[in-house]
Design brief:
It is a single chain. Strands 2, 6, 7, 8, 9 and 10 form a six-stranded antiparallel β-sheet that branches. This protein has a two-stranded antiparallel sheet with strand order 1-3. Strand 9 and strand 10 form a beta hairpin. The longest helix has 23 residues. The chain has 17 helices and twelve strands. The protein is α+β, with helices and mostly antiparallel strands.
């Protein structure tokens, strides 16, 4: 397998990382390989067997051209600033240039300790590795910007957490691993020169159209804010709860990164929290827009030295960009929900209709994912799915009547609208009870449930015979679901 490595961060950003090496696993074994992603990246797998892939994507044998490094970054974790974090259990092998010219990082996650491990073992357990593989692939299939999983490899070793777990390594693919926390690290420790260098590199790599802006660093802030508003709107639209929206988990590329204690909501409740480490609900479903705003304010603070260097007056412009985030997000969110509701135009009372919808979903504890599919079925003249979903036949009758009236304003064919809704509202998501059962089976040595679930969530929109159980929420009497960080 050939890699078209072109390691610009390693070459151009010396001082922004530490050299690193992967720990050699005792008995690497391939668990999963993403052939479609490999083809997208231009990897030629012909003649490469599973054993060779396992060696390559576990760190036992690094591919030719790799320049392994661990990236430096800081971060606000649950609101508290940690001045040095960095890749404590990850290794950036390098960057590859795909056939279409797009550039991607190739990173091993769980490959052993680095200079930033702070006493940790740098390893990963099979559960978090397979969770990230599964959920990131589901997010990609639903059209949510995300890092991707290329390979999962069992190491043949155990890692100690609350108990011993089989070890594994994930190969993660991202547009880059530059985070808000990367800017925070160099702003806190080195000052303006390093922030300017990092910003210039980020612009050249991700947003070259900004290079000619009057103040490129201010333009970078504006662009990243826009990407984050769009991303969080997409999260909310599929009921996704990241669980640990620390600034070191915010990629400037606008991709979802670091699937630790993440989960998907079943019955709608804005205060839903799954993470065992989020005792105060800081990162609850409904708080994610506010936390995005807070994180972008921290990004602006880190960028200020570069913005000020070009034009001191632009510091006020940066503050204005941050102040405008709530309105900017709300516009992105309303556009997202209009699409989910089959509304092809914008009307003045849409905001009230949308806000009332979520009040109703919470009041009646409606399954979030199924509701939008049932709504599309109403457009087809079929009400059984909605009736089965609601606690009483008329539970949401006034809202549904107003939605019907709003649909009629667009004067579109209801059947066409129903098909359009089904194309954006997933039927199959990684339901938490299904994910947990699949991970437990995989850790016990049976990968079949995980592989089946992966196949289902990679095609989230079209109903398929024999897959009905994957669309069902957890039983009403199921114990509350709790996720863990995975470190």
């Amino acid at each position: 397998m050939q890699f078209a490595f072109d390691n610009s961060f390693h070459a151009d950003m010396q001082g922004f990382y530490a050299p690193a090496e992967a720990a050699k696993p005792s008995a690497p074994r391939l668990l999963a390989f993403n052939d479609a992603l490999a083809e997208r990246l231009g990897f030629d797998r012909r003649g490469v067997d599973a054993d060779e892939l396992a060696r390559m994507f576990s760190g036992e044998e690094l591919p030719e051209g790799a320049a392994p490094i661990a990236l430096a970054y800081a971060g606000h974790q649950f609101g508290h600033f940690s001045p040095q974090l960095g890749d404590g259990r990850a290794l950036l092998l390098g960057e590859i240039v795909a056939p279409d010219g797009a550039r991607f990082d190739i990173q091993l996650k769980g490959s052993g300790p680095t200079a930033f491990s702070r006493g940790g073992d740098g390893k990963a357990a099979i559960g978090p590795v397979l969770r990230e593989f599964l959920v990131s692939e589901a997010m990609a299939a639903m059209g949510v910007p995300t890092t991707r999983a290329l390979a999962a490899v069992a190491t043949g070793e155990c890692v100690e957490r609350e108990r011993a777990h089989p070890g594994a390594v994930l190969t993660r693919v991202a547009s880059s691993h530059i985070r808000v926390g990367t800017f925070q690290f160099f702003a806190a420790h080195f000052g303006a020169d390093h922030v300017v260098q990092l910003s210039d590199y980020s612009i050249a790599r991700h947003f070259p159209d900004l290079a000619d802006a009057a103040n490129p660093h201010l333009a970078l802030l504006d662009r990243v804010i826009g990407l984050q508003c769009a991303l969080i709107a997409r999260w909310l639209g599929v009921g996704f709860i990241h669980g640990v929206m620390n600034t070191d988990n915010v990629a400037i590329s606008g991709e979802t990164i670091d699937y630790g204690p993440c989960a998907f909501m079943d019955r709608f409740a804005a205060n839903t929290v799954f993470s065992s480490i989020d005792a105060t609900g800081r990162y609850a479903y409904g708080r994610q827009p506010q936390i995005m705003h807070w994180n972008m304010a921290r990004f602006a603070e880190a960028l200020l030295p570069a913005i000020h260097r070009v034009s001191p007056a632009d510091v006020e412009a940066a503050k204005a960009l941050v102040d405008a985030i709530p309105g900017r997000f709300r516009a992105a969110w309303h556009a997202q929900v209009r699409e989910k509701l089959g509304l092809s135009t914008s009307a003045g009372d849409d905001a009230e209709l949308i806000d009332r919808l979520f009040d109703e979903l919470e009041k009646h504890r409606v399954d979030f994912t199924t509701f939008f599919r049932a709504l599309a079925m109403l457009l087809r003249g079929e009400g059984a799915m909605m009736q089965a979903l609601l606690p009483a036949p008329d539970a949401m009758a006034p809202w549904i009547a107003d939605w019907w009236q709003r649909i009629e304003q667009d004067a579109a064919n209801p059947l066409d609208l129903a098909d359009a809704m089904d194309a954006v509202n997933p039927l199959y998501i990684p339901r938490n009870h299904r994910v947990e059962a699949a991970l437990e089976a995989a850790e016990a040595g049976d990968p079949a449930p995980w592989l089946e679930l992966l196949e289902v969530v990679r095609q989230p929109f079209a109903a398929r015979a024999g897959r009905e159980r994957f669309a069902e929420p957890a039983p009403a009497d199921a114990a509350p679901y709790t996720t863990f960080c995975g470190t």
